[in-house]
Write a sequence for this structure.
């Protein structure tokens, strides 16, 4: 087992104040920083940056107040670091350590040990809100630790820990920072609740244009989102600088739980993000379960240019189709004539779309749901007119005559000739299916 650092570093790690005092009396350099062993020529480089800790850093990290006081009384530097990171001893208070290491050291007195450590640092004039070279205060740095114990944040706050102008300018707020790291603790939001009082505006955007709620939606952080919404201080429909709401981000990412959370908090299901509602975005991205949740929550299934079933089969040759599962899970909302046989802006029904885009499963699902295979808006003489059977017959003829599938099936062509042949066989199957129905053959 490698001896980490100098004998003084080791003595601090053991928590032996008498040994630390003895080594200091023998002339140990209290400001010498531990340099981790350099990898040998045949070893891979270390995958994670290792700070150069001083004895005081270690004492503070493990909440060894007596040793920290001893080192500071003998002139230990309270601010330092290396080429990559400069920080104060206070930044070590919430440093990520081995799980339960502080509890193992101090047992039932772990909170008292932390209180004493904080008091020691403050008594020696170290600012609890000083910033490191990255602009973090001890508190904002502690927020990034995924396994930090609640009592550490509580005691830092009780002692006056906060943020800084530099940090707020860089990150927006400590709540945004907390939300950005919330994916490491998807089952708890205790830390978020502790930080609310530090932030006046929970809707503020960070320099990248996202609010805390946006980050929750992007990371599927349900507890943190719920905690934010419970405050009644969050605008659930706030848009990012890119023009998307939290609901829109959740829809695109497929975060069903977040969608249900936001819908339950009153999110506007009809609000558009860059011209599309959350349901449109979910269907466009083929997030079927999100789409189902939105439909069940009352989202409109008819849009300005088409309805949800048109969109569910559009570009099926490139994105796949979710029409079948939508019809299965939302029969009351979708198995109605106005949706099944509704015309889009081009005069097509969902059946036309499914046929044109080679969605055999979509055609079957629509037929099983009662969609008409005979309905059309424009006459067959027009290039894109007639019934779904008329349309697919003309489309197959055009594809085979020109050898070009056109821009709406570009993904098929990119996969090679075998994919093209498979697609054309699917088109032939759809044509046969519709032709048999027209001819009265089951």
């Amino acid at each position: 087992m490698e001896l980490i650092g100098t004998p003084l570093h080791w003595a601090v790690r053991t928590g032996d104040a008498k040994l630390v005092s003895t080594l200091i009396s023998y002339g140990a350099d209290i400001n010498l920083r531990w340099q981790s062993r350099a990898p040998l020529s045949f070893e891979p480089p270390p995958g994670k940056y290792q700070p150069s800790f001083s004895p005081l850093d270690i004492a503070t990290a493990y909440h060894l107040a007596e040793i920290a006081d001893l080192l500071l009384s003998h002139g230990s530097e309270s601010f330092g670091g290396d080429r990559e990171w400069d920080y104060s001893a206070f930044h070590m208070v919430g440093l990520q350590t081995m799980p339960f290491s502080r509890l193992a050291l101090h047992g039932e007195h772990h909170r008292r040990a932390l209180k004493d450590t904080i008091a020691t640092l403050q008594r020696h004039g170290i600012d609890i809100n000083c910033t490191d070279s990255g602009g973090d205060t001890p508190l904002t740095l502690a927020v990034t630790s995924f396994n930090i114990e609640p009592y550490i944040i509580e005691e830092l706050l009780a002692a006056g820990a906060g943020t800084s102008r530099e940090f707020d300018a860089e990150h927006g707020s400590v709540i945004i920072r907390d939300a950005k790291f919330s994916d490491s603790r998807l089952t708890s939001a205790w830390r978020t609740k502790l930080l609310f009082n530090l932030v006046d505006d929970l809707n503020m955007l960070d320099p990248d244009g996202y609010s805390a709620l946006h980050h929750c939606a992007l990371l599927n952080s349900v507890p943190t989102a719920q905690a934010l919404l419970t405050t009644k201080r969050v605008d659930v429909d706030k848009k990012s600088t890119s023009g998307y709401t939290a609901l829109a981000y959740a829809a695109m990412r497929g975060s069903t739980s977040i969608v249900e959370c936001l819908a339950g908090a009153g999110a506007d299901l009809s609000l558009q993000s860059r011209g599309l509602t959350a349901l449109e975005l979910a269907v466009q991205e083929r997030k079927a379960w999100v789409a189902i949740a939105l439909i069940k929550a009352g989202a409109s299934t008819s849009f300005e240019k088409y309805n949800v079933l048109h969109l569910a089969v559009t570009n099926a040759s490139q994105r796949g189709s979710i029409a079948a599962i939508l019809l299965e899970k939302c029969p009351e909302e979708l198995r109605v004539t106005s949706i099944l046989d509704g015309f889009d802006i081009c005069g097509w029904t969902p059946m036309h779309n499914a046929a044109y885009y080679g969605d055999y499963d979509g055609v079957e699902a629509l037929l099983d749901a009662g969609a008409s295979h005979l309905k059309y808006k424009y006459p067959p003489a027009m290039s894109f007119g007639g019934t779904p059977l008329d349309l697919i017959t003309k489309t197959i003829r055009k594809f085979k005559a020109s050898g070009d599938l056109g821009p709406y099936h570009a993904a098929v062509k990119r996969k090679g000739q075998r994919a093209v042949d498979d697609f054309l066989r699917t088109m032939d199957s759809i044509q046969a299916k519709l032709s048999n129905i027209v001819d009265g053959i089951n």
